Amino acid sequence: MKRTLVALLPMAAAAALFIGCQTTPQDEGLLAQARSAVAAAEADPAVTQHAPTELARARTLLTNAESAAHDRGARSPVAAHYAYLATQTAHIAEQRAHEQLAIAHIKAGESERQKILLSARENDVQRAQAETQQARAESQNAQAQAAQSQAQAAQAQAEAQRLAAQLENVQATQTERGTVLTLGGDVLFDTGRADLKPGAQRPIEQIATFLEDHPERQVQIEGFTDDQGTDDYNLELSQKRADAVAMAIIQRGVEAQRVSATGYREKYPKASNSNPGSRQMNRRVEIIVGKDDRAIPVRPAPGSGP
Fold first, then answer.
1. Cα torsion for 156, 157, 162, 164, to the nearest 10°?
2. Res. 262: pLDDT tops 50
3. Which end of the chain has fewer CB atoms within 10 angstroms, the N or the C?
4. 222 phi and psi, to 5 degrees?
5. Alpha helix (H) ranges present in the chain?
6. Domains of the chain, each with CATH number or no CATH
C-alpha cells in the first residue's frame, strides 16, 4: 500500500501543477480525442516499429485518463490532464516514427542525399549571390541618396548666399528651419524703442521683394534684446520690434497670413552680454524664410540648436 502511494505521488503533483497553471479543460471531449490519437498511433506500423516507447507511454496515460474519468468523472481536471498528455504523447510518437523513417530513407539512398546536399549548396550560392547583388544595389542607392542630399544642401546654401548678396547689412545662414536673415537691432531701432529707423527701410524693402518673388515661402520674424532690462520689459520690447518688422513687410504687399512674429526677450543670446559690444550683437531681429511651401519649424529650446 505504501509503495502504491509513493508511485502515485509524482502523478498527483503533476496533476496539481497542471490544475494551477491551466484554465478548466473541456469535458469528455478531451478523453475522446485521446482515444482517437492513441488508436491512430497504434494503427501506424511506423509507430510500432520506430517509437514503441512513446506509444507505450501514450497507452499508459490513456489508461490513467480513463481510470480518473471512471473514478472522478469525465469533467475532472485530473482526467482531462491525463487525456491531454495521452493525446500529445501519441502525436509525439507519430512524429518520432516519421522522423526515424525519414532518416532511414536518407541512409538507404546515399545518392539522393548527395543530390539534396548539392541542391542545398547551390541554393546557398544563389542566396549569397542574391544578397551580394542586393547589398550592391543598397550601396548604390545610399550613394545616390547621399549625393542628392549633398546637392540639396549645396542648393540651399547657394540660395542663402544669393539672398545675402541681394541684401545690405544682413547676415544670412541656412538652417533646418530655413534661411535665417539677421538684422542688428541698432540698425533698425533706437535704443529702447520699437519704431523703425529710416535706415531700416532698405533691407526690409529688399526682403519684401524677395518674398513677393517667392509667394510660396512663409516668413517668421523673431525679436531679441540684451539682458539689461526686466523680463517683462524685454519681452514687450522684443515682441513690439518683431511686430514692427512684420507690419513693414506686410505693408509692402506680402500677404499677412504668410507672416508671423514672436518676441524672445534676452533668450538665445549670440554673445555673453558681458560688455557693450556683445550686448549689441544680442539686440537683433531674425527673419526666417521657410523652405519651399513648408511650415517653419518652432525654434528649439535654448541651448538645443539654432
1. 120
2. yes
3. N
4. -130, 125
5. 2-21, 28-43, 45-50, 52-72, 77-108, 110-166, 185-188, 201-213, 231-251, 276-282
6. 2-110 (no CATH), 154-289 (3.30.1330.60)
Residue 86 in contact with residue 34, Cβ under 8 Å?
A: yes
Q: Is residue 204 within 8 Å of residue 196, measured between CB atoms? A: yes
pLDDT at position 11 over 50: no
> Is residue 34 within 8 Å of residue 83, measured between CB atoms?
yes
Alpha carbon distance 81, 228 (integer Å): 82
Residues 173, 165: Cα–Cα separation, whole Å: 12
Higher pLDDT, 146 or 261: 261
The answer on pLDDT for 150 being more than 70 is yes
Q: How far is CA 9 from CA 12, 14, 163, 169, 253, in A?
A: 5, 9, 89, 94, 94
Confidence band, pLDDT 50/70/90 cuts, at residue 260: very high
**Cβ(185)–Cβ(241) below 8 Å:** yes
Q: What are the residues whose beta carbons fall under 8 Å from the beta carbon of 76, sequence distance 6 or more?
A: 68, 69
pLDDT at position 89 over 60:
yes
Tell me the residue type at 38: V
Does residue 118 have a pLDDT over 60? yes
Taking phi over 0 as left and psi of -120 to 50 as alpha, with beta for the rest, 262 belongs to: beta
pTM over 0.70: no
Q: What whole-number distance in Å separates Cα of residue 90 and Cα of residue 20?
A: 24
- Beta-bridged to residue 173, according to DSSP, are 180
